[in-house]
């Protein structure tokens, strides 16, 4: 069993030490059976149909709802600190990593132990979960609508029968508007990706209609703090380095989803985009995630470009940390490479780390989280098999089929020059296995 | 504007409005001079909400198949479509945000819906006096049917001559050239379409020509523009990217600068101008007190001043005097809050106005208070990020 010690981020004002937790008659206006009767929240039901084409640029309704409710909680003092008072800058360099000096985000508490070698762990009702948050921390309910129209109900009762999904504030925000999307909160799902939940997250990205509002996901073992299914999101009106990294197409699936690998980025990642519908894109990524989960490979997901691009980053930092393989300088910064860090947004707690933040440092930290070239190829092979796809590395003259080699290294040296497979619009480059 | 006007004439008025803003910067006959250029190009104004096109050359209209009225007032995104590469879209967006030039191949769509590849070359145009970006000029050079090749050893000049023949429509059998009659579906599915060196030179030349005309005619008007920022942007001048972000917010609000004498308005939304009946040039640089009058409660004004000094948000109900035709007064439910920039310090105050009579809650709408706060939130995001732009 591999474990590391770290200080968990406090995302709710009701999140206490793992040990101390009462569950009866709490009087805190939570979501447990004790308090849920009479709970009401605004409900935003988005369109079932895909949004296609170019979005309308004025602030979308959902964005107004998120910002308005967030600002309300902000002015009511529900956050542990004013994130807009935290100095932030773009680190000079080619990629534009974003650094923030935030001394208040991480508590000065004793770090607790986290098991990092199991991506799938059962939900534990005794630990902190989102049924224990105070209702004031919830902003609204969010669901995929039945009809073609967006529907908004300012004051809808929270009905357990409907399995509501909610959006809550993160009381230790990384940026303004930092929220948590908790699918089917009362169902108490553990932190693992399933098709329905990922699709809900994509819907939210699309409805927000703002490329600077991304959703992120951390699996267990990839620095998820709470084992209760949730996504995170916030506003940062500039591109993440991850989004700027060049990519090379690998395959296109039968449903039209294009899968690329990122080039010259410290963390080896896959990019999923396209698909004949949002559902196709979502299902393909979900299949890939389920595969990673079943193979106990920790990963992070970034949903970007209003849900049109999904980055999948398998990682191994926690495992390395538990085995004592991470360099001391990197460990000292106490930066855990979760989805936002891997995307290029670094929250630093020490002034000297902030002052001395450089692209090299950021690169070095993130590179520790990345899978090796070899391991990445293995993992990709697993993913492609799970999706029902075969990746062919083509050379200019002939076709070389990459072998699935479970024992590890792929000994075929790729002979790519600039572009990889010659793109040729009509022929699908994917063999669908029977 | 009466509601009985047909939509066609409404649209024309909007077009004229936008073109009027463009004309104001330059001397007379600027349009005619630009019309004489053979290139396809557009000029956009980041200071108008939506960052719309305010000038489109005849070459552009011919290339895309639209009429002038259909293009003026639209944002450049209107010519993109479902197969336009997302990365290219991002590159353009980021160049605008960072106020720098960009040259990128991108797939666009004509009015007919047919796709075409072009080299998009955009530059910012700076006002000489205040150092801010006043326009973006975008040139479009169609790229002929060459796909990106892997490690192709052929020089571009060789392709140049082949391509001319290809462009004329005859099928030339070359090892690596493509017939011009290729499937539109194919066009859309190309990952990328590299522009040749000559095409890139063409775009640079076009950009230079447009800039020359603008410079010359701005000189005549005494308000010089140029392609390079000649001085640091003046303190009370918001960056064009901040203005573009603020332009997305459709409610009435202002930004004031507490560090300038008498805390003047440095930004006013279109909705604010509509609500108060003033023109933008009448309010910029002024303190908000021009909205108060004889019957405005001075204790409320005092309360506001106190909150501002303490750096705290506050909401007050205040009687304001409009400059609308009827010179009516209105009850303004005003919310004020300090807004910080990336350094973490207060940079501006935001004031969000809500006409009290608009407080009726429609069942399917956001509560007015929520909507008001959403403006504050959107401003916070915009201001924080705009100060983080890489130099």
Topology:
The complex is a heterodimer of chains A (434) and B (391).
Chain A: E1 3-6, E2 40-46, H1 61-75, E3 88-90, E4 98-101, E5 112-115, E6 138-144, E7 151-157, E8 166-169, E9 179-182, H2 195-208, E10 213-218, E11 231-235, H3 241-244, E12 247-252, E13 257-262, E14 270-274, H4 278-294, E15 299-304, E16 309-314, H5 317-322, H6 328-332, H7 339-343, E17 345-348, H8 351-355, H9 359-369, H10 373-387, E18 392-394, E19 399-401
Parallel strand pairs in A: 2-6, 4-17
Antiparallel strand pairs in A: 1-5, 2-7, 3-4, 6-8, 8-9, 9-11, 10-11, 10-15, 12-13, 13-14, 14-16, 15-16, 18-19
Chain B: H1 7-25, H2 30-35, E1 41-44, E2 53-56, H3 58-64, H4 68-71, H5 86-97, E3 102-109, E4 115-127, E5 133-142, H6 156-167, H7 184-189, H8 197-221, E6 225-226, H9 240-246, E7 253-256, E8 265-268, H10 270-276, H11 280-283, H12 298-310, E9 314-321, E10 329-340, E11 346-352, H13 368-386
Antiparallel strand pairs in B: 1-2, 1-5, 3-4, 4-5, 4-6, 7-8, 7-11, 9-10, 10-11
InterPro entries (chain B): PAC (IPR001610), PAS (IPR000014), PAS-assoc_C (IPR000700), PAS-like_dom_sf (IPR035965)
Keywords (chain B): Chromophore, Flavoprotein, FMN, Photoreceptor protein, Receptor, Sensory transduction
Protein name (chain B): LOV domain-containing protein
């Amino acid at each position: 069993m591999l474990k590391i010690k770290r200080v968990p981020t406090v995302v709710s004002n009701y999140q206490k030490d793992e040990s101390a937790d009462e569950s009866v008659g709490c009087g805190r206006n939570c979501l447990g059976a004790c308090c849920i009767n009479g709970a009401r929240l605004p409900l935003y039901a988005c369109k079932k149909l895909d949004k296609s084409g170019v979005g309308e640029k004025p602030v979308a309704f959902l964005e107004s709802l998120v910002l308005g409710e967030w600002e309300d909680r902000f002015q009511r003092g529900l956050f542990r600190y004013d994130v807009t008072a935290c100095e932030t800058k773009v680190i000079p360099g080619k990629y534009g990593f974003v650094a923030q000096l935030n001394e208040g985000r991480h508590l000065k508490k004793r770090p607790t132990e986290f098991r990092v070698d199991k991506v799938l762990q059962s939900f534990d009702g005794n630990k902190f979960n989102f049924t224990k948050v105070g209702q004031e921390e919830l902003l609204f309910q969010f669901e995929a609508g039945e009809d073609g129209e967006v529907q908004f109900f300012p004051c809808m009762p929270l009905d357990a029968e409907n399995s509501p999904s909610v959006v809550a504030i993160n009381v230790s925000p990384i940026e303004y508007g930092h929220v948590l999307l908790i699918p089917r909160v009362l169902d108490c799902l553990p932190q693992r990706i399933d098709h329905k939940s990922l699709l809900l997250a994509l819907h939210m990205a699309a409805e927000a209609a703002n490329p600077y509002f991304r959703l992120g996901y951390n699996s267990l073992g990839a620095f998820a703090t709470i084992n209760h299914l949730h996504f995170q999101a916030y506003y940062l009106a500039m591109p993440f380095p991850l989004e700027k990294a060049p990519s090379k197409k690998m395959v296109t699936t039968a449903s039209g989803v294009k899968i690329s690998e990122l080039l010259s980025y410290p963390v080896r990642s896959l990019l999923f985009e396209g698909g004949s519908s949002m559902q196709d894109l979502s299902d393909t990524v979900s299949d890939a995630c389920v595969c990673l989960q079943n193979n106990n490979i920790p990963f992070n997901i970034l949903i970007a470009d209003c849900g049109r691009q999904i980055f999948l980053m398998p990682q191994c930092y926690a495992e390395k940390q538990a085995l004592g393989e991470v360099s001391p300088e990197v460990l000292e910064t106490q930066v855990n490479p979760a989805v936002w860090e891997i995307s290029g947004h670094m929250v630093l707690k020490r002034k000297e780390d902030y002052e001395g933040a450089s692209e090299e440092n950021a690169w070095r930290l993130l590179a520790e989280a990345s899978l090796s070239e070899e391991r990445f190829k293995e993992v990709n092979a697993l993913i492609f098999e799970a999706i029902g796809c075969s990746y062919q590395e083509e050379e200019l003259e002939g076709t070389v089929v990459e072998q699935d080699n479970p024992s590890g290294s792929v000994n075929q040296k790729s002979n790519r020059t600039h572009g990889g497979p010659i793109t040729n619009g009509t022929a699908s480059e994917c063999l669908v296995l029977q | 504007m009466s509601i009985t006007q047909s939509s066609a004439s409404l649209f024309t008025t909007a077009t004229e409005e936008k073109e009027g803003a463009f004309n104001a910067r330059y001397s007379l006959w600027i349009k005619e001079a630009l019309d004489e250029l053979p290139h396809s190009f557009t000029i956009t104004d980041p200071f108008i909400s939506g960052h719309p096109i305010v000038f489109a050359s005849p070459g552009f209209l011919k290339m895309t198949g639209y009429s002038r009225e259909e293009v003026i007032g639209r944002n450049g995104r209107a010519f993109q479509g479902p197969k336009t590469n997302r990365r290219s879209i991002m590159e353009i967006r980021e160049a605008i945000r960072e106020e720098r030039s960009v040259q990128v191949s991108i797939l666009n769509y004509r009015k007919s819906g047919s796709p075409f590849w072009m080299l998009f070359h955009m530059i910012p145009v700076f006002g000489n006096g205040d150092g801010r970006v006043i326009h973006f000029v975008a040139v479009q050079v169609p790229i002929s049917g060459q796909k990106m090749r892997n490690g192709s050893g052929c020089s571009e000049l060789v392709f140049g001559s082949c391509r001319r023949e290809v462009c004329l429509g005859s099928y030339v059998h070359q090892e690596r050239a493509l017939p011009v009659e290729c499937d539109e579906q194919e066009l859309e599915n190309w990952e990328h379409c590299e522009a040749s060196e000559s095409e890139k030179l063409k775009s640079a030349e076009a950009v230079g020509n447009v800039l020359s005309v603008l410079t010359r005619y701005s000189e005549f008007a005494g308000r010089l523009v140029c392609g390079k920022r000649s001085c640091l942007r003046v303190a009370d001048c918001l960056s064009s990217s901040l203005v573009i972000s603020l332009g997305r917010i459709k409610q009435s609000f202002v930004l004031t600068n507490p560090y300038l004498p008498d805390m003047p308005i440095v930004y006013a939304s279109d909705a604010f101008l509509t609500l108060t009946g003033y023109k933008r040039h009448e309010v910029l640089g002024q303190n908000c007190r021009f909205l108060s009058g004889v019957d405005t409660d001075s204790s409320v004004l005092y309360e506001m001043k106190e909150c501002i000094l303490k750096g705290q948000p506050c909401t007050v109900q205040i009687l304001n005097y409009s400059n609308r035709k009827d010179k009516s007064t209105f009850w303004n439910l005003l919310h004020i809050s300090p807004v910080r920039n990336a350094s973490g310090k207060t940079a501006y105050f935001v004031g969000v106005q809500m006409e009290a009579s608009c407080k009726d809650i429609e069942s399917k709408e956001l509560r007015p208070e929520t909507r008001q706060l959403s403006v504050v939130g959107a401003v916070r995001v915009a201001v924080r990020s705009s100060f983080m732009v890489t130099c």
